[in-house]
Write a structure and sequence with these properties.
- This protein is mainly α.
- It has one domain (about 5-255).
- About 60% of the residues lie in helices and about 0% in strands.
- Helix 6 packs across helix 11, helix 6 (about 100-120) packs across helix 13 and helix 8 runs antiparallel to helix 9 (about 185-195).
C-alpha cells in the first residue's frame, strides 16, 4: 500500500463538495485554472515556472515560489514539478482522475508549496518541504510516505470534526475509492481510519519541531471539510494551535484555498 497513491485517490474521492474547488484555488487562483492556453497554472508549470499569472492561491505567485524553492533545494530539478503538472492536468480535465500515483505526488507538492509560501512569508522557515522537494535518498522516500500517511490521517480526522462520519458518507467514500481503483488493503485502511474516534494528539506529536509538516496538515484539513459548522471551525482553531501555527499563518493558508471562515 503506497500512502502517496492512497492520498491522491482519497483526494479524488471529493471528501467535501468544496475539495476540488479548493485544490483549484490553491493551485491556480480558482477561475484561472481553466485553460493552459490562457496562461493558467498548467501553462506556468510547463513553461518551467517562469513567472505567475496574477490572482490568488499558489498559481498566481507560482513562478516566484518555485524559483525560490528551487534555489533553496539546490536547483529546480530537485522539485516535484512533474507532480504539480499532473495535478494541474487532472483539474483541467475536470478535477477527476490522474494517471497512477501522479495525483498523490501532485497533492504533496501543492501542500509543500503552500507550506513553503506560508512559512517563508512569516520568516519561520526557508526549508523546502518533502513533497515539493523530490526525495533524493531511500530514507527520504520512506519519510515522504510517513508524511503522506499523516496528511491522509489528518484529512479523515477533520471529517469527524462535527461528529462521527455517518454510514452513508463512509459508503460514498469507500465506493469512490473502489471506482478510482484503490486495492482492498487500501480500502480497509481508510475504512478503519474513518471508524476511529477523533484524535488530534498523534498529529501534534508528529509535527513537533516540524513547521513544514504542520502547515501541510493544516492545508490538507481545509481540503477535507466544508468549514460551515461551529464544530468544524472550532476543530480547525484547535488543530492549528496544537500544530503550533500562529493565527496569521493559519489565515494565510486559508486564503490560499479561498476559505473565509467568517
Amino acid at each position: 500500500m503506497n500512502m502517496s497513491d492512497l492520498l491522491g485517490t482519497l483526494m479524488q474521492s471529493d471528501m467535501s463538495s468544496s475539495s476540488t474547488q479548493r485544490l483549484q484555488r490553491a493551485l491556480g487562483g480558482g477561475e484561472e485554472i481553466r485553460d493552459s492556453r490562457q496562461g493558467g497554472a498548467l501553462g506556468s508549470l510547463l513553461a518551467g515556472a517562469l513567472g505567475g499569472t496574477g490572482g490568488g492561491g499558489i498559481g498566481g505567485i507560482l513562478g516566484e515560489v518555485l524559483n525560490q524553492a528551487g534555489r533553496a533545494a539546490g536547483g529546480e530539478q530537485n522539485l516535484a514539478l512533474g507532480g504539480l503538472g499532473a495535478l494541474a492536468g487532472a483539474l483541467l480535465g475536470g478535477g477527476r482522475r490522474s494517471v497512477g500515483g501522479a495525483m498523490g505526488g501532485g497533492v504533496m507538492a501543492l501542500l509543500g508549496a503552500m507550506a513553503f509560501q506560508a512559512l517563508r512569508a512569516k520568516g519561520a522557515s526557508r526549508q523546502v518541504p518533502l513533497g515539493l522537494r523530490a526525495p533524493q535518498t531511500p530514507v527520504e522516500e520512506v519519510e515522504l510516505e510517513r508524511r503522506a500517511e499523516m496528511i491522509l490521517k489528518a484529512m479523515i480526522n477533520a471529517a469527524k470534526a462535527d461528529g462521527r462520519i455517518d454510514e452513508g458518507e463512509i459508503g460514498r467514500i469507500v465506493g469512490r475509492l473502489q471506482e478510482e481503483g484503490a486495492d482492498p488493503e487500501s480500502q480497509r485502511y481508510v475504512l478503519a481510519e474513518m471508524q476511529r474516534p477523533l484524535e488530534t494528539e498523534p498529529l501534534f506529536a508528529a509535527t513537533k519541531g516540524d513547521p513544514e509538516l504542520a502547515a501541510q496538515i493544516y492545508g490538507a484539513s481545509l481540503m477535507a471539510i466544508e468549514v460551515d459548522t461551529v464544530a468544524e471551525k472550532a476543530y480547525l482553531e484547535k488543530l492549528g494551535s496544537g500544530l503550533g501555527l500562529a493565527p496569521e499563518m493559519m489565515r494565510r493558508i486559508e486564503e490560499m484555498v479561498g476559505l473565509s471562515k467568517g
